[in-house]
Amino acid sequence: MAEPPPRGAERDLFRDTWVRYLGYANEVGEAFRSLVPAAVVWLSYGVSSSYVLADAIDKGKKAGDDFPPLPLLD
């Protein structure tokens, strides 16, 4: 198990909470592929892909906040 973030550090929703397990939803769907309808498997991929996309957007926005704004060109 990962160590908790140090005091005063920002908590990462996608890494430090239960939300991170949504990234494994497709694995659960694949495990039950022979028992559930195909739509459930596809839904599990949708959940997992949404998690990955949301995490990437969040990390991109946080990385962009570290850079100063670009100067305006005339």
From TrEMBL:
It comes from the Eukaryota. InterPro entries: Mitochondrial_18_kDa_protein (IPR019560). Belongs to the MTFP1 family. It holds the Pfam family MTP18. The gene is MTFP1. This is Mitochondrial fission process protein 1. The lineage of its organism: Eukaryota, Metazoa, Chordata, Craniata, Vertebrata.
